[in-house]
Amino acid sequence: MLGYDEFFPIQATYSTGTNPYSVAVGDFNNDIRLDIVVTNLNNNTVSVLLGYGNGSFADQVTYSTGAGPISVAVGDLNNDNQLDIVVVNFYDDTVSVFMGYDNGSFANQTKYSTGSSPWSAAVDDFNNDTYLDIVVANYGGNTINVLLGYGNGSFANQMTYSTGSNAQSVAVGDLNNDTRLDIVVVNYGDNTISILLGYGNGSFAKEPLP
Question: Which residues are listed as membrane-spanning (predicted)?
Answer without folding.
Answer: none
